[in-house]
Amino acid sequence: MQRYFIPAENWEDDLVTIDGEDAHHILRVMRYQVNDTFIGNHPNTKAAICKIVNVEAGVVQAYVEQWLEENAEMPVEITIAHGLPKGDKLELVLQKGTELGASGFIPFKADRSIVKWDKKKENKKRDRFAKIVKEASEQSHRNKVPTVQQLMSLHELIEESSKYNVKIFAYEEEAKVVNYISFSEIVKELRESDRVFVCIGPEGGFSQHEVETLKENDFKPVRLGPRILRTETAPLYVLASISYHLEELRCK
Amino acid sequence: MQRYFIPAENWEDDLVTIDGEDAHHILRVMRYQVNDTFIGNHPNTKAAICKIVNVEAGVVQAYVEQWLEENAEMPVEITIAHGLPKGDKLELVLQKGTELGASGFIPFKADRSIVKWDKKKENKKRDRFAKIVKEASEQSHRNKVPTVQQLMSLHELIEESSKYNVKIFAYEEEAKVVNYISFSEIVKELRESDRVFVCIGPEGGFSQHEVETLKENDFKPVRLGPRILRTETAPLYVLASISYHLEELRCK
Fold this sequence. Notes:
By secondary structure, chain A is an alpha/beta fold. Chain A is built from 7 helices and 12 strands. In chain A, a hairpin with a 2-residue loop joins strand 2 (11-12) and strand 3 (15-18). The longest helix of chain A has 18 residues, at 122-139. Chain A is elongated.
């Protein structure tokens, strides 16, 4: 069944009002009519089967038929902080990372990031990012839409990371040192509702200064398998592995 | 260090001759000269540090300085058979799947595949695929370049799968039945050198006929986490999870 994330202000008890792009999708793309049903997601993670009761001037009204018990959210919160990569790689990370269960994304200006964001275009970019994560959430049947924060500096990133209790960064060089704690040892220790902050470098990796700053702030360096992953593949490896460990390995 | 996969016929004991695109890359992109070094990969998975000894008419000759002991290959062989998806999704799967350690790829004509391959363009397409997996292998420091086989029918796919001892297909519906064997239970049983055949449906998933045919031929249906993954994300989840389990969870 088609799924739509509907803002809190559009819910009035069991009556939902849908306008804008979602209404367009319902009426023009799906060609739904009165009595057709879809899944409506309330932002506080509840979802319901909704039946269309009225269509007027491109606005859809629907009633909740049944609240659903389903939950497709990871048992831990994972935020991906990604050093600004080239081209449309960040968009790939947002889309695939949402499917794979990330709670949030933060782009940051890494020392080796080559792209510069035009301040004027930042709003347009953020709208586009919001659309990508919303659509990916709908398509993957998630209960929540991940957040995409604004571009941060390393300093702001470190400050933000103080809200998290598990902090890692992808840095294969570290796998060669003596006191190395492996990625899997960190995943094994995860407990429900842990908040995990994952920092990924841009194409050229982290600078020495960034590595030292991350370490000083309790980020643990991890290796993600023995092959060298491209910058946009690393977060997908992290998310798939944690999903596999917590949602597939444990659940059966 | 830059890595190049060099065909067997270009090796003569410890002397390597490089021409064509790789020579162009060495001389024009990397701007290497005599005495510069790179990693040369012999197709039988051995790699060596090679030093350039001669450059003439765009052809590079190099001597092996040191054979390397490194191995970045998965302990099991994994082939991804992918129901022909739309657009450039197959190219994404080839590139990311190579980074994540796949041994081979087989595109197949699924009942719900919408794209049709133009026979005339098939050779050009195969050249492009070969280039993608070669470049991804070099970039991710693999010892082997994965194979990309020609487009198969379901019948040919089933015949090909008889060479494999573990066969799975992504089919989340199945996670709801009683005798379900989870993906992680299958991964836990993997032993070194096992040959794993992974079948992924196109955008609309498998047809009922395909599901039945796969089951009759000992393919086990698996769920890949509780979220619905896009067709191109499913093989990446499988590869990252198996890498995580066999290369990260076990190795430490």
